[in-house]
Design goal:
This protein is about 35% helix and about 20% strand. The longest helix has 20 residues. Bound molecules: nicotinamide-adenine-dinucleotide.
């Protein structure tokens, strides 16, 4: 089958996640990048497209021009990846969705709650698909953990501990020309949350994906430790889930020694599960009263959810890129199925998960402003 024709918005020269999306989209050979509006100015966009070897007439000055022309082409893009700073997600996604072009968008869904609601309406009105790249949901051992919770291996969940510490914003690198730090610390482009939006949403989504628990309320304490920084760089959140489970979420970008320390621990009345992103091929399972067991990616006793998301034998590490590629591979399944007018059940994060993530940010900001009062989403 011919690869799906993919376009990209953002991801120009020197960008971070655009390159990851390009690799992930190619791992299973199911997408081909054919067009892009890759940067914030027409000149930079075209230069970035040329550097990637795109045809000159498919390197666009901006995403609106691209959406209009690609929708008219016989062999125009079938899907676009949106990998810009957060404030561009909604206006860019809207242009493609209204023309029936599928959207694969990075998180958080939008920079404001109002835009998130508008994007949900646009996605639900469109015939096109919308996939949000909460990529940690694509890891085989995360899928295994989710399945174990569902089949009752740890019993009724009591405690959820999730954290995502980093250290790259320990100093004011936004003032020293780090492009990535600059927009992430600017409320206009990032949204009302800094660290909580950037990585707290990943932690929250991971906890929700694995446990299936719905959040009832939260109490958040957001801090901006670096002088002059306009958004939080550290957040502590207490979580109360429906049904009585309790949780804590910590995310920080000022914790020296931490790179991408996403970690989830879930404890039920029959056992516990522990997973860490920096050692992603392993999952610790402790049936209560028994020794800890180390479960492995694609290894003995692996559940189908783990085995089917693995590519190579156990012991050869898979990681960030392969997990990301699982999202693309499953998005390709949906796009192919959508051609026949049927969309099967799937595990991919949706526009509604995105809305929940932005509502989580909003609730954290509201709570923190009220001295960490308990608030509902
Ligand atoms: N899923 C993940 O693990 C993950 C990791 C990093 C970033 N992200 C998300 O990806 C997005 C991009 O982050 P990044 O670190 O790659 O940022 P970045 O600053 O490295 O890249 C952003 C790119 O978007 C371009 N851009 C800006 N405005 C544009 C516009 N109007 N039209 C077209 N292009 C435009 C910039 O020129 C740049 O090329 C953010 O939403 C971020 O939250 C997700």
């Amino acid at each position: 089958m011919a690869p799906i024709r993919l376009g990209m918005i953002g991801g120009g020269n020197d960008a971070f996640i655009g390159g990851v999306h390009r690799i992930a989209s190619r791992i299973d050979g199911r997408f081909q990048l054919v067009a892009g509006a890759l940067s914030s100015t027409a000149e930079k966009s075209k230069a970035s497209g040329a550097a990637l070897g795109l045809a000159e007439d498919r390197c666009y000055g901006d995403f609106t021009e691209m959406a209009k022309r690609e929708a008219r082409l016989k062999e125009g893009v079938e899907a676009v990846a949106i990998v810009t700073p957060n404030h561009v997600h909604y206006p860019a996604a809207r242009e493609f969705l209204k023309r029936g072009i599928h959207v694969i968008c990075d998180k958080p869904l939008t920079s404001t709650l109002a835009d998130a609601k508008k994007l949900v309406a646009a996605a639900e009105k469109s015939d096109a698909l919308f996939v949000l790249t909460h990529n940690y949901t694509g890891y085989p051992m995360v899928r295994q953990a989710r399945e174990m919770v569902r089949q009752g291996d740890i019993g009724t969940i009591r405690v959820v501990q999730v954290e995502y510490p980093q250290d790259w914003l320990t100093d004011a690198v936004e003032a020293d020309g780090s492009k990535q730090a600059e927009w992430r610390t600017d409320p206009e482009r990032s949204g009302a949350g800094g660290c909580v939006g950037d990585i707290g949403t990943h932690a929250y989504n991971l906890a929700r994906f694995v446990t299936g628990l719905q959040l009832d309320s939260l109490a958040a304490d957001l801090t901006s430790f670096v002088e002059g920084r306009r958004l939080d760089d550290n957040v502590h959140v207490m979580l109360r889930f429906e049904g009585g489970a309790k949780g804590m979420l910590w995310s920080s970008q000022v914790a020296p020694g931490n790179e991408n320390g996403l970690r989830l621990r879930v404890y039920g009345d029959k056992g516990g599960l522990e997973w860490a992103q920096e050692d992603p091929n392993y999952l610790w399972f402790t049936p209560h009263g028994e020794p800890k067991r180390l479960l492995t990616r694609n290894g003995a006793g692996g559940l189908e959810a783990n085995l089917s998301a693995s590519r190579i034998p156990p012991g050869h590490p898979e990681g960030y890129l392969e997990g990301f590629a699982n999202i693309y591979n499953e998005a390709a399944d949906l796009i192919v199925a959508a051609r026949e007018g049927k969309v099967p059940d799937h595990l991919l994060p949706t526009v509604r998960d995105g809305l929940e993530g932005v509502a989580f940010i909003d609730a954290c900001v509201r709570s923190s402003k009220r001295d960490a009062a308990w608030v509902r989403l």
